[in-house]
Amino acid sequence: MPAAPTIREALDAARQATDRIEARMLLREVLRQPDAYLLAHDDAPLTAAQARQYAGLVARRAAGEPVAYITGRREFHGREFRVTPAVLIPRPETELLVELALRRLPAGAAQRVLDLGAGSGCIGVTIAAERPQARVTLVDASAEALDVARANAARWAPANTALRHGDWYSPVVGECYDLIVANPPYVADGDAHLAQGDLRFEPRAALVSGADGLDAIRRIVSAAQRHLSPSGWLLLEHGYDQAGACADLLRAAGFTGLLAECDLAGIVRVSGGRRPGASGG
Which of 111, 189, 215, 219 could form a disulfide with 209 if both were Cys (CB 3.0 to 4.6 A apart)? Predict the structure, then answer.
């Protein structure tokens, strides 16, 4: 019976199926040890059970399964969030939406925030954790997604988050907020990217939104003014080529002070504006 590999040997073998960073992430998951341990003990042998478990994780990654779903977590804005195949995997570009939201929420102010299509809760929960005086309501049509968001809220912001199950504004009829944020589905039905990479494994309902990808954004923009305070803001993440269409929708709905902010790649990723009739910047 062959001896179990050392940490170094296991990592070297895994790099035939995945890259160096992912190989380390998966081995950290098996050993429950940080990178510093892997480096300092690279000649330590794995047990037979650890070797089998690691080989299984590497095989799942080689088949295309996202690392975040294999490990059940992903870092976002400096916090670790639980993720499952019921939610989208938090992405670094979405941190821009959080940063823009925080700029519009003064520290210490008891403002109300609505996170539509919350998924894992990474947006709304991060805002709640960074602004503990704010009250953040997270809405999602998927009960399974809300279970994930609930776990993340309980870990990072249990005192100032609330979760509602329903489609867009339906669970908050008659309620108004100082800020509405959303990272809604915005991929066009039939887009070739849906058959590539991590998107193959992510929930289709959280990705696809009609023939042009704008159905959800249209619904959010058209009804937003009924749920915004007099000077409230709406901020939306959208696709790389949808900034112009989003600006048109916001303008047609009467929003003022329109913004279009680029991510680190220089792509306009977030658009928004103030409630129709609001003044000021």
Answer: 215
Q: Is 219 exposed, middle or buried (0-12, 13-18, 19+ CB in 10 A)?
A: middle
- pTM, 2 dp: 0.92
CB 195 within 8 A of CB 170: no
Whether pLDDT at 133 is above 80: yes
The secondary structure element, H or E, covering residue 230 is strand 228-237
Element (H, E) at 181: strand 177-182
**152's tokens:** 């993340």
Three-state secondary structure call for residue 132: coil
242-255: pLDDT as tens digits = 999 999 999 999 99
Highest CATH level, class, for 85-274: alpha beta
> Residue 172 contacts by C-beta under 8 Å, 6 or more apart in sequence?
114, 137, 139, 164, 227
| SS3 label, residue 252 | helix
CA distance 84 to 96: 23
Distance of alpha carbon 239 from alpha carbon 165, whole angstroms? 25
Cα distance between residue 23 and residue 16, in whole Å: 10
With a cut of 50, say whether residue 281 has pLDDT above it. Answer: no
Whether the Cβ atoms of residue 38 and residue 54 lie closer than 8 Å to each other: no
The domains of the chain are located at: 7-63, 85-274
